[in-house]
């Protein structure tokens, strides 16, 4: 007798009609038609059951603050940063915690159970750090939240940048961040990358930097990040977030850069929603898309995972905690619409992101944590197309969220009475 069996599931790898049995908090079996019974049984009715969505790049301290203290008029990254600077002195721990917890509620309902959040360390009060550490504890039963010490105003450019980042790490922040393209000079940016990688090596921590989030093709801090990663023996533990300047770089230079990044095993984190909104703002026409070179990086064997980055904050007024919306945008902006392309995009918001975050026990194999999401879709391709309802969200063997299927009733002569968008489709496997 198992604790839980999900029956008749389609899996992201194309298997159909599979049962998933759970004992306690772990997956005990993944097989067709398991004969044993369970205390709780859920019929997935041929829907997709996937490991939870994973967001490797978010800003939990800024989320849901849209309009405080005013809106971003130009819509640019730089106005977003200065707007956040206006809001920062007004932030209270209580309000930060309350907004973050509300976002986490939304994330759970979307089957998003693993989030890496950057936390701004620029304000020496470090109220953001205190608040996000509290949130990390509070959500632990349902969301794994990793925190990055992020010197938003610059590690060297901000008066308190160096000291505040180190204090944040002393307080228990998990990962070393940075923003080299925002330092005063290219040289300061290069020096910040070196100093931050040294801190990570000394403290035994991973690195995740906002890197080259600009349309300037000469913003080449990713090259330095890759080189310092190798120098300090941090291969596989370093992430480069955004990397939008690569979009505009000279092709010959990129032909040298990508192998260097592969050697350093850099985890690449593009953020397609925010960067299609923010980049190319100084262009008239044609306007650059500003997304990094997703296909080329994947083809070179780099681990590429997509982040949501922002929801309802000074930089981005949209967003819903739905990683399928992120993948949907990636398909368009990276022009990856082929069947195999879409499977890779789905991986980028699930297994690749789990790898970036170093998650243990993630997946749909025997022995993995019993965490999964049942979607109102047949397979990953349909999930990316429809951004469907999360019928059930299971964490460590317990149902923690459920939603009614989205079904429309039609009143049309001679036409069907009901439309279940996740049924009007033959899975492609
Ligand atoms: Fe970011």
UniProtKB/TrEMBL annotation:
Protein keywords: Hydrolase, Metal-binding
Record has Hydrolase as a keyword: yes
SUPFAM superfamilies: Composite domain of metallo-dependent hydrolases (SSF51338), Metallo-dependent hydrolases (SSF51556)
One Gene Ontology biological process: cytosine catabolic process
GO-annotated molecular function: cytosine deaminase activity; isoguanine deaminase activity; metal ion binding
InterPro entries given in the database record: Amidohydro_3 (IPR013108), Metal-dep_hydrolase_composite (IPR011059), Metal_Hydrolase (IPR032466), Metallo-hydrolase_Enzymes (IPR052349)
One Pfam family hit: Amidohydro_3
Domain Amidohydrolase residue range list: 41-400
Record keyword Chloroplast present: no
E.C. no: 3.5.4.1
Listed PANTHER family: CYTOSINE DEAMINASE (PTHR32027:SF0)
Name of the molecule in the record: Cytosine deaminase
Protein's organism: Rhizobium tibeticum
Name of the gene this protein is made from: codA_1
């Amino acid at each position: 007798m198992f604790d839980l069996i999900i029956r008749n599931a389609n899996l992201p790898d194309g298997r159909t009609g599979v049962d998933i049995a759970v004992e306690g908090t772990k997956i005990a079996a993944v097989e067709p038609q398991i004969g044993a019974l369970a205390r709780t049984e859920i019929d997935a009715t041929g829907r997709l059951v996937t490991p939870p969505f994973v967001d490797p790049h978010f800003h939990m301290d800024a989320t849901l603050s849209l309009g405080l203290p005013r809106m971003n008029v130009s819509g640019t990254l730089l106005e977003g940063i200065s707007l956040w600077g206006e809001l920062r002195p007004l932030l209270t721990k209580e309000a930060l915690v309350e907004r973050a917890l509300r976002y986490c509620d939304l994330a759970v309902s979307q089957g998003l159970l693993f989030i890496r959040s950057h936390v701004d360390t620029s304000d020496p009060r470090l109220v953001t750090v205190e608040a996000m550490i509290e949130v990390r504890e509070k959500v632990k039963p349902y969301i794994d939240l990793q925190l990055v010490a992020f010197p938003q105003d610059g590690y060297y450019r901000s008066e308190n940048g160096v000291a505040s980042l180190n204090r944040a790490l002393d307080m228990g922040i998990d990962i070393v961040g940075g923003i080299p393209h925002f330092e005063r000079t290219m040289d300061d940016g290069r020096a910040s990358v070196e100093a931050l990688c040294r801190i990570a090596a000394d403290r035994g921590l991973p690195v995740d930097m906002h890197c080259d989030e600009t349309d300037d093709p000469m913003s080449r801090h990713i090259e330095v990040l890759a080189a310092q990663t190798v120098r300090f023996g941090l291969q596989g533990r370093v992430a480069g977030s955004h990397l939008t300047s690569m979009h505009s770089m000279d092709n010959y230079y990129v032909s040298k850069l990508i192998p260097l990044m592969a050697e350093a095993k850099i985890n690449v984190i593009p953020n397609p929603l925010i960067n299609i909104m923010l980049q190319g703002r100084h262009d008239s026409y044609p306007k650059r898309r500003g997304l990094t070179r997703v296909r080329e990086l994947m083809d070179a064997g780099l681990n590429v995972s997509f982040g949501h980055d922002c929801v309802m904050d000074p930089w981005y007024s949209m967003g819903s905690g739905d990683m399928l919306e992120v993948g949907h945008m990636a398909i368009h902006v990276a022009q990856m619409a082929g069947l195999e392309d879409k499977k890779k995009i789905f991986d980028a918001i699930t297994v690749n992101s789990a790898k970036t975050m170093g998650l243990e026990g993630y997946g749909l194999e025997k022995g993995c944590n019993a965490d999964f999401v049942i979607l109102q879709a047949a397979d990953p391709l349909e999930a990316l197309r429809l951004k469907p309802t999360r019928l059930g969200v299971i964490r460590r063997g317990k149902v923690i969220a459920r939603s009614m299927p989205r079904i429309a009733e039609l009143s049309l002569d001679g036409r069907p009475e009901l439309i279940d968008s996740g049924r009007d489709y033959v899975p492609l496997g």
